Amino acid sequence: MKEIIIAFDIDGTLLNNEGIPPETPTYLRPKCGVNLEIVLLLQILSKMKNTKIYVWSGGGKDYAEQICRQYGFDKYVDRCFGKHEYDDTLFGKVDICFDDVHSCELAEKNIIVKMK
């Protein structure tokens, strides 16, 4: 059975940061800033037998891990990474990536999350 690696970005994808200044500390960001539909998708995909769920962020691995713990995503996630530090030779080629950035080409299939 082929394993499918699925990666989710944090800011603008799992979390909706509209109206929140980027310098606002994470602990002050409202929990209602979660994109419930995307989080539900992450939860559903984590239940599949042949999926690995990764969460990554341009803010780095520590930030990704912190957000996953803070919002309870960690129980659905296999690993966290800094987005641009990910090494597919070590961890495998990402098959599907969910991101809010239109120029994102970090996986075989890049799905751009519509926020508005």
Please tag this protein with its features.
116 residues, alpha/beta, 5-stranded parallel sheet, 22% strand, globular
Q: Which percent range describes the beta-strand content?
A: 15-25%
Q: Whole-Å distance between the termini?
A: 37 Å
Percentage of residues in helical conformation: 10-25%
- Going across the biggest sheet, name each strand in turn: 3-2-1-4-5
Secondary-structure-based class equals alpha/beta
* Broad shape: globular
Radius of gyration: 13 Å
Order of helices and strands: EHEHEHEE
Contiguous uncertain segments of 5+ residues: none
Describe this structure in words.
The chain has 116 residues and is of the alpha/beta class. The protein has a domain at 1-5 and 10-14 and 39-51 and 68-100. It has 3 helices and 5 strands; from the N terminus they run E-H-E-H-E-H-E-E. The chain has a 5-stranded parallel β-sheet with strand order 3-2-1-4-5. The chain is globular.
Short description:
It contains 3 helices and 5 strands. The protein has 116 residues and is an alpha/beta fold. The chain has a domain at 1-5 and 10-14 and 39-51 and 68-100.
What is the secondary structure topology, with strand pairs?
Elements: E1 4-9, H1 36-46, E2 51-57, H2 61-71, E3 79-82, H3 88-91, E4 96-99, E5 109-112
Parallel strand pairs: 1-2, 1-4, 2-3, 4-5
